[in-house]
């Protein structure tokens, strides 16, 4: 770590110090909700060059922070302790499970109040503030409870380093700590962290160069059934969980597997750690580039009056996607069906494969769209569009994110579908009334057009090709009505396998 001393610099407050470090790492928009114990620190956000997005609740803010981190490599979330941090905990759990580097800053009662065990509001009322510390110790990869201005800079450095290195959420508690931290040294050695951020593995380069047959798991998108007959399988960042392996059916003999992780490689049963795998891949890349396999789309034009069906919807929607778009698909028929989307170059797909907390993607869409906006400003060039395929049930979970989208004038397109929880119906019959609300949309801002459109058949959906939707400017909600029991075949298979496993029919 570099020194914080600088001959000319003014001394800085703790919160300012932290936010300026986050700025150095590429954060521009901060997610969060104000409350006692974090209010003063919020004053430092703007002077540090950051912007507070103003989320509607901590859970949605946490999901937004997760989405932002997946696009920009790191994000910041500010909440108060107790009610705030526990509301965000589900999102932090998801970020931990699925490796999104979120820095969660928690405004906490001052040390003297905690030491006295005062019965303060927002606590459990038993004077034991360590309860919250313990909860977060289990749910984050690193924690800093800043109580000493002398050690705070080193603690902040370490917590940010761990967050980036492990790509998991980390927690910083601001215990009402007052006191200057010494001058801010802009030259502090953050290269190692920047290295981590820009050093994202790009397996597609290897795939292009070799022309090897390629399969992408649901977490990365795709489907595979040829693996069992392969001599060699090279896997990038494998995640061997039930939902990512079609109920563990795509796993093959370890002897023929090479697993490439961010900092390690395992070949068969051997493991090499502390490697920069990106550099290693570069040396492997052959010079000749083979043309990429281009999937054909044999679908005929749909009958205009026919209902929109899951079996062909996803393939047809592929034409609508653009290079550099980010596409989010929510748990349910959207994430299963989304596996059939044929992605254009440089498109990024974000879905949940492990945590599967519904409502996640609408919340994350806020962070993704903000990250796209920040990137466009930083690089002075337009980015791709943010597209969300959401289920109507999941949409209800985090609907308040819509007002944050409007409040920040974020350009977002999303589609919702059938009447209720179709995925759950396929597991076990359940009926709930469908409710979709659409509120707070600006109607008087020509620079931010808002479109709400409902398509009940193919003919109506094709009309969606409007200029606004294509341009990705403003907000477009396209409600795609599908049969409430219609599900992608892959989802039906997955559900069947999960049911058989639960009943002990398969191991
Ligand atoms: C926080 C949370 N609560 C409950 C569930 C269980 N669950 C999984 S999918 C689902 C229904 C999703 O419905 P919808 O978004 O409409 O998807 P679709 O109808 O397309 O399947 C539910 C309730 C969950 N995964 N996460
Ligand atoms: Mg639904």
| CATH evolutionary superfamily of the largest domain | Thiamin diphosphate (ThDP)-binding fold, Pyr/PP domains
In round numbers, the mean pLDDT is: 81
Q: What CATH architecture of the largest domain would you give?
A: 3-Layer(aba) Sandwich
Task: Please work out how many helical segments DSSP would assign.
Answer: 19
- The first-to-last residue Cα distance is 49 Å
β content, as a range?
Answer: 15-25%
Just give the CATH class of the largest domain: Alpha Beta
Walk me through the topology.
Blueprint lengths: L10 E3 H11 L4 E4 L6 H4 L8 E2 L5 H15 L2 E6 L2 H16 L3 E6 L3 H6 L13 H10 L2 E5 L5 H15 L3 E5 L5 E4 L7 H8 L4 H8 L22 E4 L20 E4 L4 E3 L2 E3 L4 H8 L25 H8 L8 E4 L3 H5 L10 E4 L8 H20 L6 E5 L1 H6 L3 H7 L4 E5 L5 H6 L22 E6 L2 H5 L4 H5 L3 E6 L8 H14 L5
The site of thiamine diphosphate has 19 residues, from α12, α14 and α16.
Organism: Aspergillus cavernicola
InterPro entries: DHS-like_NAD/FAD-binding_dom, PDC/IPDC-like, THDP-binding, Thiamin_PyroP_enz_TPP-bd_dom, TPP_enzyme_TPP-bd, TPP_PYR_PDC_IPDC-like
Keywords: Decarboxylase, Lyase, Magnesium, Metal-binding, Thiamine pyrophosphate
Task: Give structural notes.
This protein is α/β, with parallel strands linked by helices. It has three domains: 3-198, Rossmann fold (3-Layer(aba) Sandwich), CATH 3.40.50.970; 203-284, 3-Layer(aba) Sandwich (Rossmann fold), CATH 3.40.50; 310-485, Rossmann fold, CATH 3.40.50.970. Helices cover 35% and strands 16% of the residues. It has 19 helices and 18 strands. It has helices at 14-24, 39-42, 58-72, 83-98, 111-116, 130-139, 152-166, 191-198, 203-210, 277-284, 310-317, 333-337, 360-379, 392-397, 401-407, 422-427, 458-462, 467-471, 489-502; strands at 11-13, 29-32, 51-52, 75-80, 102-107, 142-146, 170-174, 180-183, 233-236, 257-260, 265-267, 270-272, 326-329, 348-351, 386-390, 412-416, 450-455, 475-480. The strands form four sheets. The protein has a six-stranded parallel β-sheet, with helices on both faces. The chain has a six-stranded parallel β-sheet with strand order 14-13-15-16-18-17. A four-stranded mixed β-sheet has the order 9-10-11-12, with no helix packed on it. α7 (152-166) links the parallel β6 (142-146) and β7 (170-174). α3 packs parallel to α4 (83-98) and α13 (360-379) runs parallel beside α15. The longest helix is centred in the last third of the chain and has 20 residues, at 360-379. The chain is globular.
């Amino acid at each position: 770590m570099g020194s914080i001393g600088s001959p000319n610099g003014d001394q800085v407050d703790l919160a300012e110090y932290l936010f300026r470090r986050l700025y150095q790492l590429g954060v521009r928009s901060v997610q969060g909700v104000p409350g006692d114990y974090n209010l003063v620190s919020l004053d430092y956000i703007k002077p540090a060059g950051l912007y507070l997005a103003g989320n509607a609740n901590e859970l949605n803010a946490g999901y937004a922070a997760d989405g932002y981190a997946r696009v920009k490599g790191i994000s910041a979330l500010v909440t108060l302790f107790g009610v705030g941090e526990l509301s965000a905990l589900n999102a932090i759990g998801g970020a931990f499970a699925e490796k999104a580097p979120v820095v969660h800053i928690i405004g906490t009662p001052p040390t003297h109040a905690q030491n006295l065990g005062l019965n303060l509001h927002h606590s459990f009322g038993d004077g034991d503030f360590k309860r919250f510390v313990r909860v977060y110790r289990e749910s984050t990869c690193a924690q800093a409870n800043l109580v000493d201005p002398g050690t705070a800079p080193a603690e902040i450095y370490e917590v940010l380093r761990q967050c980036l290195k492990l790509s998991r959420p980390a927690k910083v508690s601001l215990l009402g700590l007052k006191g200057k931290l010494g001058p801010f040294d802009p030259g502090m050695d953050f290269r190692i962290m920047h290295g981590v951020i820009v050093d994202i593995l790009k397996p597609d380069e290897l795939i292009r160069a070799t022309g090897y047959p390629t399969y992408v798991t649901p977490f990365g998108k795709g489907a595979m059934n040829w693996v069992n007959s392969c001599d060699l399988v090279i896997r990038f960042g494998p995640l061997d969980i039930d939902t990512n392996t079609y109920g563990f059916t795509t796993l093959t003999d370890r002897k023929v597997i090479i697993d490439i992780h961010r900092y390690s490689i395992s070949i068969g049963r051997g493991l090499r750690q502390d490697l920069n795998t990106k550099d290693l891949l570069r040396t492997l890349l052959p010079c000749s580039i083979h043309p990429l396999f281009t999937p054909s789309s044999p679908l005929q034009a749909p009958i205009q009056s026919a209902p929109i069906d899951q079996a062909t919807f996803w393939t047809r929607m592929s034409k609508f996607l653009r290079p550099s778009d980010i596409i989010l698909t929510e748990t349910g028929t959207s994430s299963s069906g989304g596996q059939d989307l044929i992605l254009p170059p440089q498109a990024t797909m974000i879905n949940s494969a492990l945590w599967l907390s519904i409502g996640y993607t609408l919340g994350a869409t806020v962070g993704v769209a903000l990250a796209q906006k920040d990137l466009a400003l930083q690089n002075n060039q337009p980015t791709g569009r943010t597209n969300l395929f959401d289920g109507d049930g999941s949409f209800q979970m985090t609907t308040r994110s819509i007002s944050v989208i409007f409040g920040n004038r974020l350009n977002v397109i999303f589609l919702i579908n059938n009447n209720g929880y179709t995925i759950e119906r396929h597991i076990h019959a359940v009926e709930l009334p469908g409710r979709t609300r659409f509120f707070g949309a600006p109607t008087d801002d020509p620079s931010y057009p808002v479109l709400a459109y409902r398509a009940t058949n193919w003919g109506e959906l094709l009309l969606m090709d409007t200029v606004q939707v294509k341009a990705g400017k403003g907000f477009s909600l396209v409600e795609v009505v599908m049969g409430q029991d219609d599900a992608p075949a892959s989802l039906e298979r997955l559900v069947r396998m999960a049911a058989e496993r639960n009943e002990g029919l398969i191991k």
